[in-house]
Structure to design on (782 residues):
């Protein structure tokens, strides 16, 4: 378990969140801890900079050791043998490179300065790990009575009011964060903890009391922790009920926390070089000349560049204006790579603006063939055509249809490939628009899902299954919600003769095939999901479909006929109702539909 | 969308002639088995491959925003203006060129005229009032304008006098994106 000594030292130090507290707070904490203990204790690198004291490194490890010792699977028996020696021994076994003893062995061959550098690097790493791990792992070992009280009793009352204030007002953010991490720690190891508790109970309660008041209380039911976590999650990150529920159901507690943290930060600026005008290497050289610090984005893309820092505005260099590159998120390279358009094909992009993906398609087609770029929103058309012109794409037709009407305009089965980067709730790009946290409701999602389904069917309808080179549809969203992704694809699989094929992307997590009550077609696992906390790109979903036949499945034909008939009947009914003077209701309804047609997506 | 009338076509070709000279025929020549054509949509003139033009006839007039490369637009008074989007086309065939010193690039991209002091090179034999394409030292086309002086006069000019009058520059993609699209 835990040394009484170590724990006490920590107790008496002021309660400050290690990561959030900043350097000053850290130093204070270190001082406080030092005062509490007989040997001067230091655990932080900053204080090390000021005093050359070699003994300090050991103490910093002591902090870690508390936790590692426990992690090493010492359960009830080890609780009785809690002398420091044991701990030191244990720890050096576990992370052998991480402590002073092994350092002194190497010592002869190294210069003093080298030793110091190594020590510093090690300590830095340990500090970071410790800060991350400490709270979570303390959760792992179960909580002491006092902490348990912290979690439920004093948090319980004020959290009600916290929710109303939303975020932060009168809430100790660090405290909530700390508490949240503890609970998440417990929840992630709930099974083990339960087992341990069982063992403890079997062993009898005498052993625990010998420890002197640091007894571990009984675990509460899992639901208690879940409720606590949900509340804190909402308070800390400011999501509404619906979004909290969604996020917590998609991710494990620990992942949800990582996701929310990642959604607070921003993603790196990325560029796409335009092969129609330049080569990536030349572009990189030109930009480096302007004081931009950049690198290729990774092995998976030949055109992507990631910008670390720039002295000039990256969206206003002469190279940008000349169309040598465009600014776009790393995630928006993925659907086009999955689509893999070939020269001389006919490709349609149903929701094109602002043209990042469209110009990427144009570049891959090398200005041959034909590219339809459709965009519903009038105010976004200007930037779409300007970008297409700037990037030197000459094979594009920009049009302004509702994507659902597009098959009527350009005809069914006329295209080789279709890209639908569907309008979505934007839950993958919360860092760009934090409003998503509070503004999304189930109704919004249903609405967008309906549009997404219709758009996907219309995309599929435009593609010709007999195409020699293509017959593919790529569906992507910047949403992480299953409703907008897997379920939409599943719907399309039922409604049209298509199958899911591999996206050809080398990374990303497989899409879900089971989620809560939903069971989707197993082939959907070939689709890819991307998360900000895992891949450091926007939350994203990419699915590639291959059209098998232009025919619509027979069962669906029948269903559609029925639906059509019903619609007709309804219309007739409404007409007769209107004729008989009950027109008011009908009118209202009509206007509602009219509004819906104009609805943003 | 419709083909240009004879009058409109003259206006367009006269303007292009200023920049590319006799090479203006090249715009209508077949390239790699594709023939190209000019089309007017609303008040904008587009230069497109014929096969694309045919496909675009399916699209309703009010829904068609742009196609191919936009060359320019007709003003209310019926005059034809080249827009910055035509830069790449005319740069391919440009007769008269001016290269800017790298220190003067940004000034030009903010819409200023080219001064003698900011000019690095100019094509030999550029007459007065000819169409000129402006390049950066890295041979990236930045815009176009009209020469205010002939090449021979340039040598004797004082550094502050204007050599090329500004007509369009790629900075417009930022400054007035809405008028381009």
């Amino acid at each position: 378990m835990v040394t009484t000594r170590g724990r006490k030292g920590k107790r008496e130090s002021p309660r400050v969140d290690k990561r959030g507290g900043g350097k000053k707070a850290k130093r204070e904490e270190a001082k406080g801890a030092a005062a509490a203990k007989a040997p001067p204790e230091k655990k932080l690198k900053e204080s090390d900079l000021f005093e050359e004291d070699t003994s300090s490194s050991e103490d910093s490890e002591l902090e870690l050791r508390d936790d590692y010792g426990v992690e090493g699977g010492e359960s009830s028996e080890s609780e009785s043998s809690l002398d420091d020696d044991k701990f030191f021994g244990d720890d050096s076994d576990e992370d052998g490179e991480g402590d002073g003893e092994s350092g002194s062995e190497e010592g002869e061959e190294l210069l003093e300065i080298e030793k110091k550098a190594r020590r510093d690097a090690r300590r830095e790493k340990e500090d970071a790990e410790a800060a991350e791990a400490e709270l979570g792992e303390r959760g792992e070992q179960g909580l002491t009575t006092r902490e348990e009280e912290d979690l439920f009793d004093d948090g319980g009352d004020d959290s009600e009011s916290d929710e109303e204030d939303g975020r932060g007002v009168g809430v100790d953010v660090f405290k909530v964060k700390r508490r949240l991490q503890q609970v998440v720690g417990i929840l992630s190891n709930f099974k083990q903890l339960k087992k341990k508790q069982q063992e403890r109970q079997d062993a009898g309660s005498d052993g625990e009391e010998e420890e002197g008041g640091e007894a571990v209380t009984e675990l509460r039911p899992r639901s208690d922790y879940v409720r606590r976590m949900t509340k804190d999650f909402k308070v800390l990150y400011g999501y509404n009920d619906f979004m909290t529920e969604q996020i917590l159901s998609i991710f494990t507690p620990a992942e949800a926390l990582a996701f929310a943290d990642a959604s607070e930060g921003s993603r790196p600026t990325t560029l796409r070089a335009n092969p129609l005008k330049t080569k990536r290497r030349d572009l990189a050289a030109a930009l480096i000349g302007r004081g931009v610090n950049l690198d290729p984005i990774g092995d998976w893309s030949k055109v992507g560049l990631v910008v670390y820092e720039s002295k000039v505005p990256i969206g206003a260099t002469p190279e940008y204006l000349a169309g040598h590159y465009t600014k776009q998120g790393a995630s928006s390279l993925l659907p086009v790579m999955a689509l893999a358009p070939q020269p001389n094909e006919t490709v349609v992009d149903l929701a094109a603006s602002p043209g990042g993906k469209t110009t990427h398609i144009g570049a891959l087609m090398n200005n041959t063939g034909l590219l339809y770029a459709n965009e519903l929103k009038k105010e976004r058309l200007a930037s779409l055509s300007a970008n297409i012109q700037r990037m030197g794409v000459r094979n594009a037709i920009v049009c302004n249809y509702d994507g659902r009407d597009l098959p009527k305009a350009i005809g069914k089965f006329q295209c080789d490939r279709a890209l639908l980067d569907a309008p979505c709730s934007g839950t993958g790009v919360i860092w760009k628009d934090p409003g998503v946290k509070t503004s999304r409701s189930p109704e919004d999602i249903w609405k967008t899902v309906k549009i997404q389904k219709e758009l996907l069917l219309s995309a599929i309808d435009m593609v010709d299954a007999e195409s020699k080179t293509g017959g593919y549809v790529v569906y992507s969203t910047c949403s992480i919600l299953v409703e907008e992704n897997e379920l939409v694809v599943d719907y399309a699989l039922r409604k049209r003769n298509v199958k899911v094929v591999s996206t050809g992307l080398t990374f990303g997590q497989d899409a879900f095939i089971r989620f809560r009550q939903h069971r989707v077609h197993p082939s959907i696992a070939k689709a890819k999901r991307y998360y900000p906390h895992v891949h450091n790109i926007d939350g994203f979903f990419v699915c590639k479909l291959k059209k098998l036949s232009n025919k619509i499945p027979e069962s669906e034909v029948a269903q559609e006929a029925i639906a059509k008939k019903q619609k007709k009947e309804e219309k007739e009914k409404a007409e007769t109702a209107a004729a008989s003077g009950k027109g008011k209701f009908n009118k209202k309804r009509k206007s509602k539909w009219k509004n819906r047609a104009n609805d943003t997506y | 969308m419709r083909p240009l009338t004879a009058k409109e076509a003259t206006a367009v070709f006269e303007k292009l002639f200023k920049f590319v000279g006799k090479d203006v025929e090249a715009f209508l020549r077949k390239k790699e088995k594709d023939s190209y054509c000019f089309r007017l949509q609303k008040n904008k003139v587009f230069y497109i491959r014929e096969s694309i033009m045919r496909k675009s006839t399916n699209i309703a007039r009010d829904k068609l925003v742009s196609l191919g490369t936009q060359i320019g637009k007709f003003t209310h008074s019926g005059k034809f203006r080249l827009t910055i989007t035509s830069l790449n086309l005319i740069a391919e065939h440009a007769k008269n060129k001016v290269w800017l010193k790298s220190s003067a690039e940004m000034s030009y991209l903010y819409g200023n005229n080219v001064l003698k002091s900011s000019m690095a090179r100019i094509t030999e034999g550029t007459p007065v009032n000819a169409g000129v394409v402006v390049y950066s030292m890295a041979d990236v086309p930045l815009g176009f304008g009209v020469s205010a002086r002939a090449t021979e006069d340039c040598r004797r000019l004082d550094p502050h006098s204007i050599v090329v009058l500004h007509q369009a520059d790629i900075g417009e993609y930022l400054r007035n994106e809405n008028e381009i699209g």
Chain B has seven helices and eleven strands. Chain B has two domains: 6-89, 94-175. The radius of gyration of chain B is 17 Å.
